[in-house]
What does this fold into?
Amino acid sequence: MVMRPSPIPYPRRGAGAVMTHSLHRSGMVESLRGDYVWFMYQAKGINDKNIAPKAMEFIAAAEAAGSENWGDVKSGSVLEFPVGEIKARVTDKSRLRGVFTRREQVVEFLEAIKEKDLGLSVVISALLDEVLPACQEAKVTPHTINYSLGVWGKKDLLPSEDVLAVTTMCGHHQISPRLVEKKVREVRKGRKTPEQAAEELALYCPCGIFNQVRCASLLEDQGKSQV
Amino acid sequence: MPVIVEDQCKGCKLCIPVCPVDAFKPVNKKLVTIDQDICVECYVCVRKNACPFGAIQSLALSGTMRNFSHFLSDPTETKASTGVPGRGTEECKTNDVTGRTRIGQVGIAIDMGRPGVGLRLVDAEKVAMAVAAVGLEFEESSPLTEIMADKATGKLREQFLQVHLLSIIVEGSCPMENLPRVIQALREVEGKIDTVFSVGVISRVDANGYSPVLEQIDRAGLPRPIRGKVNVGLGRPLVND
It folds into this structure.
């Protein structure tokens, strides 16, 4: 394909200068820098056979790169169930996904998956000025991008930006805004550490893409700011 | 269908914050109920044992509408017709092997009710009809398209209009140069609905991750997107056109 090259297509924004919404994640830009979601996908009727052994290879690559959370929507996440149990439940229908907190992990993961040549689709959802350099470093070639154009419509129905930054980390919105507010109160009162509260919220995301590390940081900040 | 067994409910209200759509309502100091008109059948309350006294029980879902709601709102379910869990669509995730969005085309994924607000399908119909009117062709393998009475206009079957869901995607494609018209249609319809939607624009990119769709986004007066889902082209057999 011939397209006009663009050496710097996505200029970096200043730290914390922009609030962004996305299909998957919301929050301050600097916070989103520690947040990379990975997906393994088979396409129905095209490459959906013999998936289980390939899925195990994906798990090995994710574990080697230190994926902080991952799971299979049919089985749950590693924060909810023992890793061995999730591996034992892997089938040809499995759809794996997870989250990294550093760009270096993304590079290592992509290099490993490219080397294994498993033939399944891989998607990384993140800030474009983070993920595209990671692709370049891992020597993989971006094929298609789903660009977020943000949230439209009756936005006064949305919870606060602070709450959205947490709830949008479960892409299927299984985490209610009220639950996040409750966890912030618990942190503020010292009943739970930010890490404990974040891991409790992560249990509501069956896919394993909830970033409990970023969440703990957000809850800690929100707990302080609401005193 | 989750229900509260009244004689087991202690009125502690611990279940209330668990529900993503606020369907749990206190009746009095000793009883909470589930507003079935609001419930989207996501089953979060059931999966997460939201009641410490076991007062939430799950009844068999009855009827097409409740089942539709459930399959679209509970990510652990798989939409049988598309074979895809979650909202039952693959959008860009497998585009390297499906070629669903080709060079020169753009895919549009309008994620109705998202983030976290939910929707009545009547609002999805308004948006679908608005974008169909400016030339968006709906994706065949999509749960919303399946319940359309007229795929040319985006009109839904009447009996679905009041169904309440956590989210559903209006998904289709058009030539890239039509994108500003689609965006204008979304601008016009966004004030006529009682929910929110998130918009994704799907495009093939070059080896640097660049797509001329960004210029169409500029032309429509929107800021350059800074976040996206990047399909890194490792699927096989690879679609290159």
The mean pLDDT of chain B is 93.
